[in-house]
Every structure is written in structure tokens, then in C-alpha cells.
């Protein structure tokens, strides 16, 4: 998976990237003033939006190209701090992105967790490991906002992968489904080409 992810960034095949950030985050995020973890963050502008809400924002991203693009495209100066994973620290801002394998990341604990593109990108056989590692980085009472997809996997195959409700709740029993809408028009072209007519984006949040 790691090499496929890096190859997508090298080739610019990043259809999941939302240039203006995620509207569900902006609608449903109710946390204030906390340290927020954003796994597999890419170059998302959600990091900036979260910072503007008063958070210390920490992203983790495997692709160095993605990390550098985030700072360049948003004209944010940064410093590089060497360590087990290279940290790109925004100058005079509360944004840091660690570049490396998420499973090796250990700079917790975090008060909140935002996942828009990580859980759906992780192959099903690695999801349990991903969630377990994420849980180890969070405080017990951490706030969570997770955005997943539901679609007929017999018609189209990921990534992004569908994550059914029962699986989400098996990982995070405290979550509630707060929104859902059909987002097939913004889904990968390969989904529509395969004949998929519906792709539901589901927003989960703890009370």
C-alpha cells in the first residue's frame, strides 16, 4: 500500500483531494481549543481550518511531496525538525506535519481526532491495526469526527473502500451517525464507469 500511495502522489492521481476543504468538517466539528490528530492528511486545507478554530493541529503523511505541497500552495513558511520522523513545523503557526509511516508515529497523546480520508484508504485487512494504533495515540475521552463511505463493493472496488456502519461502531462504539448524503458525483470516475450509481458519504461523531 505504501508504494501505491507514494506513486499516486508522484503521478498527481489525487482525486480525493478537496481544494477548498471538507464541508462536513466545517458543519459538524464542535470541538474547541485542543490538540488534533489528522492521519494520512495529504495536503488538505482542513489543517488550516482546524487551526483557525484554535487547535494545535498535527498531521501525519507518508508522501514528502504532499507535505511540501501543503506548505508551498498555502504559502506557509516552515522549519524542519529531524527525528524518527521528519517534522515540518509551520513558522508562527500551530500546524505540524510528520512525514513517515503512520504506524511508526508516536507523538501523542491527542485530545481530538479527525479522519476524512484515512480509514477509507486503509485496506480492510489493515483497518484493525490502524484503529488500534490510532486509539493508542488518543486520550480516553478524545473527541472524534470520522467521515466514511458506504457503497456496493460488488460493483466497484476501492480505494477508497466502503466502511459499513457495523464496522465503524465495532471500532468506536461511542460514535453517532450525524449526517449522510450521496456523493457519487465526486467519487472516483472508475466507480461510475463500473456502474456504481450511489456512494454515500457518512459522517460519524461522538456526542
Protein described:
There is one protein chain. This protein has 207 residues and is an alpha/beta fold. It has a single domain (1-9, 20-205), classed as Vaccinia Virus protein VP39 (Rossmann fold, 3-Layer(aba) Sandwich). It contains 7 helices and 9 strands; from the N terminus they run H-H-E-H-E-H-E-E-E-E-H-E-H-E-H-E. The protein has a 9-stranded mixed sheet with strand order 3-4-5-2-1-6-7-9-8. The longest helix has 11 residues, at 127-137.
Helix content: 25-40%
Chain-averaged pLDDT: 92
User: Any idea what the shape is?
Assistant: globular
SS class: alpha/beta
Would you give the CATH topology? Rossmann fold
CATH architecture: 3-Layer(aba) Sandwich
Number of domains: 1
As a whole number of angstroms, the C-alpha radius of gyration is 16 Å
Element string (H = helix, E = strand): HHEHEHEEEEHEHEHE
Low-pLDDT runs: none
- CATH first level: Alpha Beta
Name the beta content range.
Answer: 25-35%
In whole angstroms, the N-to-C terminal distance is 33 Å
Biggest sheet record: 9 strands, mixed
Q: CATH homologous superfamily?
A: Vaccinia Virus protein VP39
Q: Please provide the count of β strands.
A: 9
Provide a count of the helices: 7
Query: How would you write the strand order of the largest sheet?
Result: 3-4-5-2-1-6-7-9-8
Sum up the structure in keywords.
single chain, 207 residues, nine-stranded mixed beta sheet, 27% helix
Give a concise summary.
The protein has 207 residues and is α/β, with parallel strands linked by helices. It has helices at 2-11, 23-28, 46-52, 64-73, 127-137, 165-171, 189-193; strands spanning 35-39, 56-61, 78-81, 86-90, 95-99, 110-115, 138-150, 176-182, 200-205. A nine-stranded mixed β-sheet has the order 3-4-5-2-1-6-7-9-8.
